[in-house]
Amino acid sequence: MSTPLLIRGASQIVTVGGGAPRRGQALADVGVLRDGAILLVSGRIAAVGPVAKVEKLKEAGSAELLELDGRVILPGFVDSHTHLIHAASRAEEYELKIQGVGYEEIARKGGGILNSVGKLRATSSENLKARAQLFLERFAEHGTTTIEAKSGYGLDLTSELKILSLHKELSAEQPLEIVSTFLGAHVVPAEYRHKRNGTREYLKLLEEELLPAVARNRLAEYCDVFCERSAFSLAESRRVLEAGKMHGLRPRVHAEQRSHTGATGLGVKLGAASCDHLEYLKPADIRALAKSGTVATLLPGCDFHLGQKRYAPARKLVEAGAIVALATDFNPGTSPTVSMPMVLALGCTQLCMAPAEAIAAATINAAYSLGRHGRVGSIEAGKQADLAVFEVADYREIPYYFGVNTCWLTMKRGEVIHMRD
Ligand code: NIG
Ligand code: FE
Prior knowledge:
It is a single chain. This protein is of the alpha/beta class. The two termini are about 30 Å apart. The radius of gyration is 21 Å and the shape is globular. An 8-stranded parallel beta sheet has the order 8-9-10-11-12-13-14-15. Strands 3-2-7-16-17-18 form a 6-stranded mixed beta sheet, with helices on one face. Strands 5-4-1-6 form a 4-stranded mixed beta sheet. Helix content is about 35%, strand content about 20%. Helix 7 runs parallel beside helix 9. It binds N-(iminomethyl)-L-glutamic acid (NIG) and fe (iii) ion (FE). The site of fe (iii) ion has 5 residues, from loops. The site of fe (iii) ion (FE) has 5 residues, from loops.
């Protein structure tokens, strides 16, 4: 057993304790402790509470000390929507978008997702892995300790399995936990586009070869689909998600990002873990989400990066009682950021979420959407010691100082994985 660790001297311990998921007013109730301490034993939180009480515990006597000198400590961020594995940036498209060329127009000309697919197929697993490793270090530097990662830039058997196998390898070899999602239905790949029944043929491949191979090799927990005019229709999305369920993969959905498709209603009906994006949500969708256990995952980094004025209706979702989460959507096309602190800032200024709401959305509710709320997402006795310390005196300063990384230290299962020098 490793030496216990006593963490004290925080100006605030933002515990986000008290159960999951958080809906309505409970989202802002993040349980801030002052004069608190946290005792870690064997990579877990053994106790959290008033310093006078925690210091009296038996293991505290022999514990090493970590003094936070007035900094703020949070549960490590859970980034519940990323496209981790990709081969290159799309900075050239970024410049085109700034000049006024639309996202769909770029995609029609072979750019967009297909641009990333071409590059990924031509890149070795070793190179993809090395690139992902660097990004995983950056996630940790920004206070993130768990991520979800989607395939979807492979779109053939070999390349999709290459991505999903990397999720598994990386999750085992570096400290961050990676929750794997199969997104074979990202778009129809180029080689099927000129065929008369190309979409149908690709979906047949997906159902008869890709999904069975993913399930057989236990390479994903979730199956996602991009339901959009430029990707898959509602009927096609239903087919993919139902096929995923048959293989034991719970649905997640890219829904109402660029237009209203009805994907949210579908996701709720199919018991999706999460419906993501939601910029074009309708009142009936908000009601459906509010009555469901499906998480509404908002990705304001996308709208910010694409220069879009339309953001998801976060306030309406919170007020209706939906389970709201925030994530980066780290990907080369619409949101090339690993920074949850930046996403918190966008959640506050663009989605009008209170800083406390944004923190709960980025920790406990995100953990809930990944089925990990029993282990991570809050600072509570019994949970994994996944923690992030920020060089600020008040948790509201984390989104307030936007564009700078105030993360001072990150811990995964009680091990320091990032410390600012
Ligand atoms: O979440 N919407 C679909 N997928 C990604 C974008 C992918 C890309 O442009 O490469 C997203 O925004
Ligand atoms: Fe995405």
